[in-house]
Amino acid sequence: MEYIEAKELLENSVRCVAMSMEQIRIRLIDHVVGRDEPMQDHLASCTWAIQPYEWSSMEDCLKYLGHLYEGLKHAAEHDDVVNKQGLYVNDVALIADMLRGFTLSKYPDYLLDCARDVSDVAQILLRRYACEKTEENRKECVTLFLSDVKEIAEDHGVNLNNDGKFSLPLAYLHDWMCREFDEF
After folding, report:
1. Is there a contact between 95 and 118 (Cβ–Cβ < 8 Å)?
2. Cβ-based neighbours of 46, under 8 Å, separated by 6 or more
3. pLDDT, average across residues 12-35
4. How many of the other CB atoms lie within 10 Å of CB of 174?
5. What's the CA gap between 102 and 167, in Å, rounded?
6. How close are the terminal C-alpha atoms of the chain, in Å?
7. What is residue 157's DSSP assignment?
């Protein structure tokens, strides 16, 4: 085997691995779509600038694999912490991630306390409003929830403001509460 053939074989193999890993990343995103927006956004953005194609250079594929590795490593650390600390109960970890606007691999106590309080409020409001599934009840439930979340976050020192604009954490929490209402 000549050096040129070996080089081409290596390039094709790296391209193939990168394209296969891209399909796995897409499946991971599909798995969390509509359930875990912070993780969905994390997986979508970890390789945002580089996409492997059959004509991609080996350098681009290696760069892609490096970014993907870092992103998957962070996702695995996140899951490990959530499972070890039992934060999957009542969506505490998910709520904490939504309060921050991104996935975390360390959860400070004040953020977990805030997330638990938000979860408690969500359950109370769902029991009160989701018995009768009307659009009016849904809007009122979600509006009260977001109002309570702002107060709870302020009490725990969690900043949800985005200079008076609708923030990403509030958007995550809004969508989550809408889904919870629909599924209750």
Report:
1. yes
2. 25, 67, 68, 70, 71, 72, 74
3. 92
4. 17
5. 12
6. 63
7. T
